[in-house]
Amino acid sequence: MDLKRLEYFLLVADHGSFSRASSVIGVAQPALGRQVQRLEEECGAKLLYRHGRGVSLTPEGEIFAERVRPLLTKLAMAADGLNQNERPLSGSVTLGMTPTMMSLMGLPLLQKMRAIAPGIKLNFLTGYSGYVHEWLVDGRLDIAILHDARRSRHIAVDALAIARLFLVSHPSLAKQLIAPHMASLPVLGLQGLPLALPSGSHGLRRTIDQATTKLKVNLDIQYELDTLTLMKAIALAGIAHTILALPAVADEVHSGALTATLLDAPSMETRLMIATSLNRPLTLAGRAVLEQVRPVLQQSIDSAVIPLHMRLA
């Protein structure tokens, strides 16, 4: 089976169009179509639906793509490291993270890579999950950490961690709301509280909205802010509450400047995913960085100033 045909098939499937795939790889559209058609003949099954909007995978195509993709990835990696003693790891790798994850593991990851592969230059971009997703799709990032992202024709995702969510408040507001003996707050208790939250295009907000909509809780969102700094400042000023995972406010909670109350009944949590672009294969340097994300995150969780209620997936 021709490897080039397999690569062409996956590119067409990922882009959802022969014309878009043709422009990316620089192969004429008719020639690309013939290669995919010959692959279908070899397989004895139609792999793609052709329609007015482009193409989509048939059930047989989905199965075939799931089988072929990891094989091509392993083949591309076959020669990696064979000459490692002569050629130390080098290159530039760009990572995108939410502000919470950057505060938790940005510096530890930089220090780790500096110790084991000083030739790799790390570049970090930080923003809310929706922005980081856009940067990854646009090709500005090699690796991204996102809230509740799903695989698409542009990105591959893998579960990284699960973090419980907390109502974050100024201590004076928390005393008005929560009795001293209470260790948590039911999600229904969010009804009517003044809140500062991210806008709806970001993963954390979608998680909050899904949980509260299911329980028919009407949130009083007084401020929509796509900046963690200002959201924390509003909580510190006692203007409104916010909802965050503990790594975002660990220092403030540890010092007593803010109070964090676990949201429960049902528990509210956000799933963090590690994502890479299907259109921008990782270099050897990128894979070396990717291999360190989980152990560095675990070390950061273990060494935090307070328990973070966060675990690796």
Fold and architecture overview:
Keywords: Activator, DNA-binding, Transcription, Transcription regulation. It comes from Pollutimonas nitritireducens. This is LysR family transcriptional regulator. It holds the Pfam family HTH_1. This protein folds into three domains: 3-76, Winged helix-like DNA-binding domain superfamily/Winged helix DNA-binding domain (Arc Repressor Mutant, subunit A, Orthogonal Bundle); 91-158 and 272-312, D-Maltodextrin-Binding Protein, domain 2; 162-270, D-Maltodextrin-Binding Protein, domain 2, CATH 3.40.190. 43% of the residues lie in helices and 24% in strands. The protein contains eleven helices and 13 strands. It has helices at 3-15, 18-25, 29-43, 59-76, 99-116, 129-137, 171-177, 203-214, 228-236, 250-255, 284-302; strands at 48-51, 54-57, 91-97, 120-126, 143-147, 155-169, 184-186, 194-197, 220-224, 242-245, 259-264, 269-277, 310-312. α1 packs across α3 and α1 packs across α4. The longest helix is centred in the last third of the chain and has 19 residues, at 284-302. The mean pLDDT is 87.
